[in-house]
Amino acid sequence: MIELKDVSYVRLGTRDLDDALSFATGYLGLEVAETARNAAYLRSDDRAHTLCYFDGDPEDHTVGFEVEDEENLQLAAATLERLGHPVHAGTPEECDLRKVKAFIGFRDPTGNHIELVVRPERSGKRYFATRDAGITGFSHIGLYTTDPSRDERFWTEVCNAKVSDRIGDIPLMRVNEIHHTIALLASDRAGIQHVNHQVQTSDDVMRSYNFLHERNVPIVFGPGRHPTSGARFLYFKGPDGMVFEYSVGVDAIEDEEGHNPRQFGFEPSSFCKWGSKPAADFRR
Ligand SMILES: CC(C)c1ccc(C(=O)O)c(O)c1O
Ligand SMILES: [Fe+2]
């Protein structure tokens, strides 16, 4: 069984790196850690980076998850190969680009690019952004799946994720005590559906709603409150149509053994208890 510790980063291709960088700093509220000729590294917490925009195909999305050590990484590689997922071992140059000690890359059953990483770099400097969005850290991702039941089995049976709740067939899965780190949303293609950052207070969510709305950033869901995790949320669109979420107040699952996933109906009130409804382009 592969043991994931946490989500580590996302890597997003873009044809307009300057535009992506100005959105990430001026609107989303991330801090530039480093820029290179064809990539920009952004921080949201004490990690060296949690988002990398690179010059490339905007459909090219990768999610990195941290595993404990190199021994676990090798075991994970063997498990994945045995199950028919070809594994790429990161070269030293590729590890440098990701600021990790070692990593492997593979595709989940839908074809999503997944990386497992060991010893992602932290920064001695505290995260300090130019726009104060109140971000406390990168927290979870929504991932597209072409077969929710199959991919739920992959994430739970191969990667030891646990289902905290389901909305219809959307599983919200945890890899640590946080309510969820991965949500699977049905689609006809692979890719990341949304990238979540936690913020400090509900005031931050509402301040951002006004800030983004006034600047014509498309708000695609919220402000609202998820009945599942209990979080207050706001979703909006960034470069290349990527959806970003701010949320605050996500539950922790403290009774790991005693928690049973709750089944919510696939209806608006399961997504938002305040009555907000997602825009048509919230997901593709
Ligand atoms: C709409 C998506 C799948 C969703 C649903 C519930 C939560 C939550 O309980 O926090 C999310 O964060 C979501 O992104
Ligand atoms: Fe989310």
TrEMBL record:
**InterPro entries named in the record:** Fosfomycin_Res_Enzymes (IPR051332), Glyas_Bleomycin-R_OHBP_Dase (IPR029068), Glyas_Fos-R_dOase_dom (IPR004360), VOC_core (IPR037523)
| The keyword Repeat is annotated on this UniProt entry | no
What is the scientific name of the source organism? Aquibium pacificus
PANTHER family attached here? FOSFOMYCIN RESISTANCE PROTEIN FOSX, LYASE, PUTATIVE-RELATED-RELATED
Q: Where is the VOC domain?
A: 6-119, 137-249
UniProt keyword Nucleus, yes or no:
no
Listed A to Z, the keywords are: Metal-binding
Q: Which domain of life is it from?
A: Bacteria
The protein depicted here goes by the name VOC family protein
**What Gene3D superfamilies does the entry give?**
2,3-Dihydroxybiphenyl 1,2-Dioxygenase, domain 1
